[in-house]
C-alpha cells in the first residue's frame, strides 16, 4: 500500500476493525518513511460471469435496477430494494466463491423478493425462469398458495 503523502511503497498496519456490515475491514496504517497515518477499507472482490462470458464486479445497484422493474407499481420502497440487494450480496458471498454466474444471482434474488412482494416475485420469476405458458404461472401461484397454507396463522395477542 503506497503512502498517500510521500508515495513510499510500504506501510504498517496499526489497527484493523471489521465494518458494521461485516463485509469489509478498516485498517489504520502508518508510513515508516514520513510517519503519516491513513485509513484503508478492504473488501473481498466478487465478480459476476455474465451469459456472454464477460466478467464484471458485482453491483448491488444492478440487482436493485433489475428488481425495480418487477416492483413497478407495487408498494416497495427504495429502502426495501436496498435491503434486498444487501441480502442477495450476503447470500452470494456466503458461497465462498469469488466468481458467480448470473444464474446464481437470480436464484439468490427469488427468495427475498418472494418475501418482499409476491406479485413482484411472479413478475421477476416469469422473466428469469422464462415462463412460456399459463401453466408456468399457475404452477408458481400454486406453490405460493401452498406456502401460505403451510405457514402458521398469525397470533392475535
From TrEMBL:
Copy out the cofactor comment: Binds 1 zinc ion.
Superkingdom of this protein's organism? Bacteria
> Boundaries of each ATP-cone domain copy?
46-136
GO biological process: one example? negative regulation of DNA-templated transcription
Q: Which GO terms describe its molecular function?
A: ATP binding; DNA binding; zinc ion binding
Could you say which cofactors this protein requires? Zn(2+)
The UniProt record lists the keyword Zinc: yes
Q: Where are the zinc fingers (unnamed)?
A: 3-34
Q: Which Pfam families match?
A: ATP-cone, Zn_ribbon_NrdR
| Keyword DNA repair on entry | no
List the keywords (alphabetical): ATP-binding, DNA-binding, Metal-binding, Nucleotide-binding, Repressor, Transcription, Transcription regulation, Zinc, Zinc-finger
Q: What does this protein do?
A: Negatively regulates transcription of bacterial ribonucleotide reductase nrd genes and operons by binding to NrdR-boxes.
Q: Which family does it belong to?
A: Belongs to the NrdR family.
Name of this chain's protein: Transcriptional repressor NrdR
Q: What is the lineage of its organism?
A: Bacteria, Bacillati, Actinomycetota, Actinomycetes, Micrococcales
Amino acid at each position: 500500500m503506497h503512502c498517500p503523502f510521500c508515495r513510499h511503497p510500504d506501510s504498517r498496519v496499526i489497527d484493523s476493525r471489521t465494518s458494521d456490515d461485516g463485509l469489509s475491514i478498516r485498517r489504520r496504517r502508518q508510513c515508516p518513511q514520513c510517519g503519516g497515518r491513513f485509513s484503508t477499507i478492504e473488501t473481498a472482490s466478487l465478480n459476476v460471469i455474465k451469459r456472454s462470458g464477460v466478467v464484471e464486479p458485482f453491483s448491488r445497484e444492478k440487482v436493485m435496477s433489475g428488481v425495480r422493474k418487477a416492483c413497478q407499481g407495487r408498494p416497495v420502497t427504495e429502502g426495501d430494494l436496498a435491503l434486498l440487494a444487501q441480502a442477495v450480496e450476503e447470500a452470494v458471498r456466503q458461497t465462498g466463491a469469488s466468481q458467480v454466474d448470473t444464474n446464481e444471482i437470480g436464484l439468490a434474488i427469488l427468495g427475498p423478493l418472494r418475501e418482499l412482494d409476491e406479485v413482484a416475485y411472479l413478475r421477476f420469476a416469469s422473466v428469469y425462469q422464462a415462463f412460456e405458458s399459463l401453466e408456468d404461472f399457475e404452477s408458481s401461484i400454486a406453490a405460493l398458495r401452498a406456502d401460505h397454507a403451510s405457514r402458521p396463522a398469525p397470533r392475535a395477542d
